[in-house]
Amino acid sequence: MKHSYMTAAAISIAALMSTGAYAQEVDFSGKTIELIVPYGEGGGSSVHARLLAPLLEQELPGHPTIIIRNIEGGGSVRGINEFAARAKPDGLTIAALATGTYYSYILGEETVQYPLADFIPFLTSPYGVVSYGLTSFGLTGDPEHDVKYLQEHKAVYVGDGPADADMPVLYCFDLLGIELNGVFGVSRGESRQAFMRGESQVNYDNMASWDNELKPMVDDGTMVTLFTMGFQNENGEVVRDPVLPDTATCPELYEIVYGEPMSGVEKEVYENMFAIRMVTAKTLVLPAGTPDDIVQTYQAAIERVVARPELQSAAAQLELGGYPQGTGEVAIEGHRTASVMSPEAKAELDRWLKDVWNID
Amino acid sequence: MDLSALQYALPALLTLVTGPHLLYLIFGVALGMVFGVLPAIGGLAGIALVLPFLFGMDPGPALAMMIGLAAVPATSDTFSSVLIGVPGGAGSAATVIDGFPMSKRGEAARALTAAFFSSLIGGLFGAFVLSFAFVVATPILMAIGFSEQLMLIILALTLVGMLTGRNLAKGLASCCLGLLIGSIGAATATGEQRFAFGTIYLMDGIPLVVVALGAFALPEIMDVLRKRQFIAGDAPLGHGWLQGFRDVIDNIWLVLRCSGVGAVMGMLPGMGGGVVGWVAYAHAVQTAKDKSQFGKGDVRGVIGPESANNAKDGGDLIPTLFLGVPSNGTMALFLVGLTVIGLQPGRAMVTQHQDIVYLIIWSLAIANILGTVISILLARPIAKVTAIPFMLVAPFILVAIFFSAYQSKSDWGDIISLLVVGVVGLFMKRFGWSRAGLLIGLVMSRNLEAALYRTAQVYGLELFLRPLALVILGIAALMLFVTIRAKTRVSSEGDASPELSMPTVNLQFGFLLVLIAFVVAVALDVSDNTFLAKVFPLSVAGLALIFLTIAGIGMVRRSKAPGLIFDADLSDDPETDGSKPLLPFMALMAALPLSIALLGFWLGSVVYMFLFLWLVARKSVLYSAINTALLGLFFYVMVDLINARFAPGLLQQLVDLPYPLG
């Protein structure tokens, strides 16, 4: 609790300062901006950041140099801790958050020392997620049949872990009454190899790999899609993922299985995870207490970045999944939903981790 | 086998040598040389540096540049391994075992030429394998499941059993210690913390490169400081260039076999690049008729790992390009580079972009040739370092080692781990505990645990119904048999007879007790975890205790078993007679991190350097100041070049200082 008082104090001081002497035009001429990526050089967050940074350099006033600093450790905790501790609210240090940053915070990991909800987001990049299974295992692509089949035949699942990026998908499987034999600590790329070798029978992937890697396997009959996590439209409703309009969403399957829509605390947990995994899959933030003029400068710059032709190229679209990028209020709202969880929802999540996966 | 893709080979070569590609390739190679020469900094830093410039570049030149950067460090990192005993990277520690003794004999020239020439053949071999493998690789890789990965790791472990030093119990105990250190951090299966004490630094384990630097580089430096005035001793320098070439020609089959080992191990999943050099080294030892010179400067001990390490680059590219699964950090960054220039790795590479694949293959081949030529040209001037009074070289090397170690996680934990491992390594070397065993255990630990757990979960006992797994297991059993029967075991810890070593037996026993205490502490710490998180470290700790106890009983009974009671400082080697006491030199080593802790890395190392040259090496103030200034400038440039970071000290905590002071 102590932390949030201090943050509150910092915000109010910064707010006072920003009303006076700092109310001039923001200019980053000759400045160097540090972008902290809390994962390794080759990770998805790093790709995302490296894709955007050169464009952001060109769109920020004064064309500053942006250096990407990969600070790995403890999931994403070390890098974001360092960001929270070190970044001054002057727009010269920014950070990339990823799903892990939110999970570590929400699960209350002891090492977390960052005030997640106080960070000011200026870009949220949504990513769709699709889960799929092997036809040779007995899956057909008919949702009703497949869910029942998986309930009766325990499949092997190879992935990262239920307390990590896999959480939403694994929670969905559990909501659908499907028990899995989990093998954890395996990266996404390796997981897909294990699936292709038939060592696991269900798996999931980021929609970025759909066209090149997954669709061919659906086309040649190796696998079928099971469900997507859905997609949030402009009205805030969860609808089918635009990339896979023929595949049901997790809530749809829930309704097929139980005859009624998801509700209560389960719905709340799902929505929270949806916000983390889908809406704010990759987020760029400014530190807590950044003055409004700097925030607005960043917001305006990133809107121009998102509209640039470079990001419409096929390769860039592959990385960004072709989803509309969240800027301005959309980013702020998405980040808020993703970083706050009610005590009831938290209790349900803890229960699930403990009961299903034996994780305290 | 469909080899129709070969039609793209020649046009790709023409593209490479005619367009701007070659210029970019040369640029990449030049940069890669610089990064490779620095200990423990390699292709990863290089690709990170050029990534921002790839935007908007044509794919061809961009690829040529990245391949140049990724391929050359495996050649040029040999300089530090051979000349100053500092592993040029986590994967090249095996080269140190025989390369450095050769330098100490005044044969630096021969060792370097042999290394570069075998690197060249290995690199070309890797490119050759890549040019065929990409058509057939996917089905082969699909056959290597978790169970096969496990068996391959077991096979590798039995292969390297040769390298456990004179005394088997001590050697196996060292290997178990490595496995145990490797299990520190988050458990693969559950993510639970083991022996991390709530620190974020230990949560991801101790970086391999820090242990490699601590266990090999620091003890060697202390050793030379205590015993010699020059690295090359009194031996004359400069002969042996032609001998190096001849060595490679004489051992051409060894070079080709080790290249094969490297290419295959780079390609296969689940092995990790750090072990390739060791397996090649073990293979060199195993197939040699006269094994007596290994560990003391046998050129085959250099040829083997060097050819394998370069061939590995070709192998590494196979899963990276065709499956989109990077085999190491450099390859992961290479994937990012591919995305930036608009190429998606995976099956599309094989079906739609054969021309690009061949461009990569030719770039790899030409990069290796360029790298070798430049290295051989540079070898003569750089080798002179072995004839400079070591007192003047040592502070540079020390500072470089601490700098490199800090780049692995940019955390003070890196420096503390380096110092702790350095001190332990010093005693391991002196008392005859296998540092190679320690490092091999560490390299294999994560992969072994993960493969065991995955195989158990997915297959259980059905493992024994997998034919390929059984075949590999059979080969492993054969290798184990050969290893146990082998009479000679390779030691990098020198010679000392039990009789002469007797006076310090109590001190040696005390060191053994320290090792036992560490094992027990880890075992106690992990025993609270869930079954899946503790079964591996507890089993390893159990094995370690058995081997340590066997060694301990032998010491108490004053056994004359070879290498058991062992003190390299008391050997009859004439070299040790004039050696200086250990403690002051340990203090000298520890003074550097202390200075960094007070003043931060840049200022701390500059001050240390100056004081070392002035007071310890007894040089004039002017000489010390000029050299120190050069060092300061070098690090200043490095930071800009590779985005390196300086460890902060107490001073930086108190005062906000401008870069590079802050």
List keywords for this structure.
heterodimer, A: 360 residues, alpha/beta, D-Maltodextrin-Binding Protein, domain 2, 2 domains, five-stranded mixed β-sheet, three-stranded antiparallel β-sheet, 14 helices, disordered N terminus, B: 662 residues, mainly alpha, two-stranded antiparallel sheet, 2 strands, 70% helix, 1% strand
* Discrete helix count of chain B: 30
Biggest interface found:
A-B, 54 and 52 residues
Second-tier CATH architecture of the largest domain in chain A: 3-Layer(aba) Sandwich
- Low-confidence residue ranges of chain A: 1-23
How far the N terminus sits from the C terminus of chain A, by CA atoms, comes to 22 Å
Round the Cα radius of gyration of chain A to an integer and report it: 21 Å
Ends distance of chain B: 60 Å
Major sheet attributes of chain A: 5 strands, mixed
Beta content of chain B: under 5%
Rg value of chain B? 24 Å
Detailed description of the structure:
Chain A is α/β, with parallel strands linked by helices and 360 residues long. Chain A contains 14 helices and twelve strands. In chain A, the strands form four sheets. Chain A has a five-stranded mixed sheet with strand order 2-1-3-12-4, sandwiched between helices. In chain A, strands 8-5-9 form a three-stranded antiparallel sheet, with helices on both faces. In chain A, helix 6 runs antiparallel to helix 10. The radius of gyration of chain A is 21 Å and the shape is globular. The two termini of chain A are 22 Å apart. Chain B has two domains: 539 residues, no CATH class; 73 residues, no CATH class. A two-stranded antiparallel sheet of chain B has the order 1-2.
What order do the helices and strands come in, and which of them pair?
The complex is a heterodimer of chains A (360) and B (662).
Chain A: H1 2-19, E1 32-37, H2 44-59, E2 65-70, H3 77-86, E3 93-98, H4 99-106, E4 120-125, E5 129-134, H5 143-152, E6 155-158, H6 167-175, E7 180-183, H7 188-196, E8 202-206, H8 210-219, E9 223-228, E10 231-232, E11 238-239, H9 250-258, H10 264-279, E12 282-286, H11 292-307, H12 314-320, H13 328-339, H14 343-357
Parallel strand pairs in A: 1-2, 1-3, 6-7
Antiparallel strand pairs in A: 3-12, 4-12, 5-8, 5-9, 10-11
Chain B: H1 9-18, H2 21-37, H3 43-50, H4 59-71, H5 73-76, H6 78-83, H7 93-104, H8 108-143, H9 146-159, H10 168-182, E1 185-186, E2 193-194, H11 200-203, H12 208-227, H13 241-250, H14 252-267, H15 276-287, H16 300-323, H17 329-340, H18 347-352, H19 354-383, H20 390-409, H21 412-430, H22 435-458, H23 467-485, H24 498-501, H25 505-526, H26 531-556, H27 582-599, H28 601-616, H29 621-642, H30 650-654
Antiparallel strand pairs in B: 1-2
Helix pairs in contact in B: 1-19, 2-4, 2-19, 3-4, 3-17, 4-17, 4-19, 7-8, 7-16, 8-13, 8-14, 8-16, 8-19, 9-22, 9-23, 10-22, 10-26, 12-20, 12-21, 12-22, 12-27, 14-15, 14-16, 15-16, 20-21, 20-28, 21-27, 25-26, 27-28, 28-29
